[in-house]
């Protein structure tokens, strides 16, 4: 048998494999670190002089208090320890924030309890033309006269976590995102930006410390500088920090803060054939590539790629073997074929090899022989031990031609065995089986004869599973042994159904629940986002789902405005009881049609009917109940010569006689309300259901209406 490897005489074909390299260091966000101050002597001393004189300025910082302070805690300070000449921004024992520059009318403090313990809080101070303002989480919490501020150039430069000499008031807790501006920032500017990291060199930002140094909780003895990300580059030096453990060291910052990725990155890439840069440009030649990207907050991210392009190639070879051939990758071939395999060349790139494989089959003749003691072949070989014996000759193909003597002792035994396991199997005879199949193994039984065992061996396989999970707040793995509370990739190992090692790869995305507070003004009623209909001014709480499908606890302060317009009538003039911004009278009998020109508080209808008034008051539009109006306009005076009403007073009935045709008769009470209406013929009108009192009978003729007083005296 022979195996030949050679390059084809054909022109070598170079295959170009496109590999997209994802450089995580470019796009991954740096850890959102902060700095823990021990409340004893930890502080950061910068080289920044601060905003001098009485010029406008803005201070910002994120702080975290693990416990209620026992005294003032300095957040930042600079200047000198004289009246009006220092800039001490602090939080006190009442959980209020304040600014002190010394002297009368140069100090302001917020209300107590504006800073929460064990919760990240954003605090700000603004000096605007001699007036100071204090903000907590973007909300103004204090103001006062600071016209006496006059910061000097001879004082101590900006210090974080401790006052200038003359009063230490060290800070105990965590500080992050310290920003100093040379302008008075507005409330909206503070609110729009306090929950996110900013780009370096922001306009009017003269000092910016985002605290993204060190490794949270790890030993950081070499990380003693605090980088200034403003254009001034006034880095700070850490003083007295232990820089190990979870206190007096770099720690994790506020999880609500939107973090900015790295801004400048240099990395090396080796790629086979070509390389596609993060901006999508395909490169085919080694060299140095520079590109500028926009990170998550819109800041420039400059990347430098040291690119090495490695070659790929294709080769052709042939092989001739007897019965079987094992490829370079260990695949067993038993038939002639042309196949491809891919290897790594000396450059680490794919090298494709095509092999023309010829398999010549050996011949084998089986001669079963039964014997008791021994057996002698035609070539004179004598065998006393049962088994299979082979005589080998070489055929014209160069492969073996085999005669197999199957010597079976009459008293030999046979057996079968089935084995399934996750690793190689060693039979009692010492044979090792490393792949699934049916094998024959020969052993001696207790009588000294052959015992032939047919082995059905199955090599079980391990399994790997990938599970993608999106969960709210936390996720517990299927085993129940691991609780995951942040987005991450995680592995668990266990035995599968075949009792082989199995790996479950979890890709877990953790989304978080949220809380919200809002105010709502409504008229008459309001339906909350969680579907509750409310009609009373109150504070309501409910649960809705946020954009991630997680519960959001929402607190709404609902203010319900209720107007109740009523209608009264005086001498054919209707009016409403409420003073409003606008009025509109409506015809209830005509689908609440808006009556043209009837847009004042009072309205004199030209005819009888049901009317309502629509008012606009306190940003609410309300409509009264319909009011029945009986018009007395165009009603003639009684003509007792033409029309007779009798008896009057009446008890059970009344009759009406007229020279003209009577169409109908209506009876009104003294308030003008209709109490009875009849189409009139020659019958008496039944009034027995009416109470005793004074009424008015209206006789409707063809062209006129006559009005007559009527006294009803029912027993």
Please describe what this structure looks like.
It is a single chain. The protein has 715 residues and is mainly β. The protein folds into 8 domains: 18-26 and 262-310, no CATH class; 30-252, Jelly Rolls (Sandwich); 312-360, no CATH class; 368-407, no CATH class; 463-511, no CATH class; 514-561, no CATH class; 567-629, no CATH class; 635-712, Immunoglobulin-like, CATH 2.60.40.3080. It is 2% helix and 50% strand. The chain is built from 2 helices and 64 strands. Strands 3, 5, 10, 11, 12, 14, 15 and 18 form an 8-stranded antiparallel sheet that branches. It has an 8-stranded antiparallel sheet with strand order 9-8-7-6-13-4-17-16, with no helix packed on it. The radius of gyration is 49 Å and the shape is flat. Residues 1-30 have low confidence and may be disordered.
Secondary structure blueprint with pairings:
Blueprint: E1 2-4, E2 18-19, H1 24-27, E3 33-38, E4 43-46, E5 57-64, E6 73-79, E7 88-91, E8 97-100, E9 107-109, E10 121-128, E11 131-136, E12 139-145, E13 156-160, E14 172-181, H2 187-193, E15 205-209, E16 225-226, E17 236-239, E18 250-252, E19 264-272, E20 274-276, E21 282-283, E22 287-294, E23 300-310, E24 313-322, E25 325-326, E26 332-333, E27 337-344, E28 350-360, E29 363-371, E30 375-376, E31 382-383, E32 387-394, E33 400-409, E34 413-421, E35 425-426, E36 432-433, E37 437-444, E38 450-459, E39 463-472, E40 475-476, E41 483-484, E42 488-495, E43 501-511, E44 514-523, E45 526-527, E46 533-534, E47 538-545, E48 551-561, E49 567-570, E50 573-576, E51 582-587, E52 593-594, E53 602-603, E54 609-617, E55 620-623, E56 627-629, E57 635-636, E58 643-646, E59 653-658, E60 664-668, E61 674-679, E62 685-686, E63 693-700, E64 705-712
Parallel strand pairs: 2-20, 19-23, 24-28, 29-33, 34-38, 39-43, 44-48, 57-64
Antiparallel strand pairs: 1-24, 3-14, 3-18, 4-13, 4-17, 5-10, 5-14, 6-7, 6-13, 7-8, 8-9, 10-11, 11-12, 14-15, 16-17, 20-21, 22-23, 25-26, 27-28, 30-31, 32-33, 35-36, 37-38, 40-41, 42-43, 45-46, 47-48, 49-50, 50-53, 51-52, 51-54, 54-55, 54-56, 58-59, 59-62, 60-61, 60-63, 63-64
């Amino acid at each position: 048998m022979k195996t030949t490897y050679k390059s084809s005489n054909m022109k070598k074909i170079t295959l170009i494999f496109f590999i997209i390299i994802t450089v995580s260091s470019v796009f991954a966000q740096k850890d959102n670190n902060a700095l823990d101050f021990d409340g004893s002597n930890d502080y950061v001393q910068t080289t920044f002089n601060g905003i001098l004189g009485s010029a406008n300025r803005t201070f910002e910082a994120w702080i975290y208090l693990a416990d209620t302070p026992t005294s003032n805690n300095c957040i930042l300070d600079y200047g000198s320890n004289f009246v009006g000449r220092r800039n001490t921004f602090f939080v006190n024992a009442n959980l209020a924030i304040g600014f002190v520059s010394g002297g009368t009318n140069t100090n302001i403090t917020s209300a107590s309890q504006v800073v929460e313990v064990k919760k990240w809080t954003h605090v700000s101070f603004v000096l605007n033309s001699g007036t100071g303002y204090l903000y907590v989480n973007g909300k103004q919490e204090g103001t006062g006269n600071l016209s006496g501020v006059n910061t000097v150039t001879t004082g101590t430069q900006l210090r974080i976590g401790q006052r200038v000499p003359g009063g230490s008031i060290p800070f105990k807790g965590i500080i992050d995102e310290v920003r100093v501006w040379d302008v008075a920032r507005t409330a909206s500017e503070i609110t729009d930006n306090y929950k996110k990291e900013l780009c370096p060199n922001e306009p009017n930002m003269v000092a910016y410390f985002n605290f993204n140094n060190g490794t949270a909780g790890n030993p950081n003895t070499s990380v003693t500088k605090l980088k200034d990300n403003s254009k001034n580059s006034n880095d700070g030096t850490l003083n007295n920090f232990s820089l190990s453990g979870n206190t007096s060291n770099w720690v994790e910052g506020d999880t609500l803060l939107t973090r900015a990725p790295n801004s400048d990155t240099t990395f090396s890439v080796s790629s086979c054939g070509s390389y596609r840069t993060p901006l999508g440009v395909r490169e085919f030649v080694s060299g140095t590539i520079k590109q500028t990207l926009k990170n998550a907050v819109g800041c420039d991210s400059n990347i430098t790629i040291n690119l090495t392009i490695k070659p790929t190639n294709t080769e052709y070879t042939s092989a001739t073997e007897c019965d079987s051939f094992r490829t370079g990758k260990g695949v067993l071939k038993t038939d002639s074929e042309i196949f491809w395999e891919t290897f790594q060349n000396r450059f680490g790139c794919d090298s494709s090899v095509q092999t023309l494989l010829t398999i010549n089959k050996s011949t084998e003749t089986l001669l079963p022989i039964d014997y008791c003691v021994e057996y002698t072949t035609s070539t004179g070989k004598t065998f006393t031990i049962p088994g299979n014996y082979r005589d080998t000759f070489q055929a014209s193909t160069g492969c073996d031609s085999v005669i197999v003597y199957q010597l079976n002792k009459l008293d030999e035994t046979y057996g079968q065995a089935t084995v399934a396991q996750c690793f190689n199997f060693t039979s009692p005879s010492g044979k090792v089986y490393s792949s699934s199949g049916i094998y024959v193994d020969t052993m001696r039984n207790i009588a000294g004869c052959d015992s032939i065992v047919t082995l059905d061996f199955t090599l079980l396989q391990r399994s790997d599973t990938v599970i993608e999970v999106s969960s709210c707040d936390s996720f517990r793995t299927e085993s129940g042994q691991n609780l995951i509370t942040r987005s991450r990739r995680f592995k668990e190992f266990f035995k599968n159904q075949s009792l082989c090692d199995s790996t479950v790869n979890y890709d877990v995305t953790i989304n978080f629940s949220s809380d919200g507070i809002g105010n709502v003004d409504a008229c008459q009623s309001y339906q909350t986002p969680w579907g509750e209909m409310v009609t009373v001014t109150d504070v309501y709480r409910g649960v809705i789902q946020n954009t991630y499908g997680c519960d959001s606890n929402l607190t709404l302060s609902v203010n319900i405005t209720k107007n109740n317009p009523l209608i009264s009538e005086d001498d054919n003039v209707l009016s409403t009881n409420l003073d409003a911004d606008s009025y509109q009278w409506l015809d209830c009998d005509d689908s609440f049609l808006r009556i043209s020109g009837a847009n004042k508080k009072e309205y004199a209808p030209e005819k009888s009917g049901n009317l309502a008034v629509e008012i606009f008051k306190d940003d609410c539009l309300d409509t009264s109940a319909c009011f029945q109006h009986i018009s007395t306009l165009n009603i003639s005076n009684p003509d007792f010569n033409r029309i007779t009403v009798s008896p009057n007073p009446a008890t059970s009935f009344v009759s009406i006689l007229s020279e003209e045709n009577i169409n109908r008769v209506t009876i009104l009470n003294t308030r003008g309300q209709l109490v009875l209406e009849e189409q009139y013929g020659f019958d008496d009108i039944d009034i027995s259901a009416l109470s005793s009192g004074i009424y008015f009978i209206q006789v409707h003729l063809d062209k006129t209406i006559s009005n007559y007083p009527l006294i009803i005296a029912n027993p």
